[in-house]
Amino acid sequence: MTHLTSSVIVKSPDILSGTPVFFGTRVPIKNLLDYVRAGESVVEFLDDFPSVSRDQVDAVLALAEMLLMETVDAHPA
Question: Which Gene3D superfamilies does this entry report, sorted A to Z (predicted)?
């Protein structure tokens, strides 16, 4: 059994069968990405998922940006 825990994202087989969720909630990280892709605002996401904090959303988006930039930097044109 693998547990990935941070102050923002938790992945545990005991929570939604291992789907990565916001720490302290059962809200999948993918829900935020789906909202962004659909053109919804962060405010709308937070209104629909009040157990997630703005700080958590900001941290996930910053992590996504960092990982994207690392991937791009690792594969220069």
Answer: Winged helix-like DNA-binding domain superfamily/Winged helix DNA-binding domain
Q: What CATH number belongs to 4-74?
A: 1.10.10.10
Per-residue pLDDT reduced to its tens digit, 28-69: 999 999 999 999 999 999 999 999 999 999 999 998 999 899
Do 16 and 28 meet the contact criterion of CB atoms below 8 Å apart? yes
pLDDT at 6: 76
Strand order in the sheet with 9-11: 4-5, 9-11, 21-22
Query: CA–CA separation, 28 vs 36, rounded Å?
Result: 14
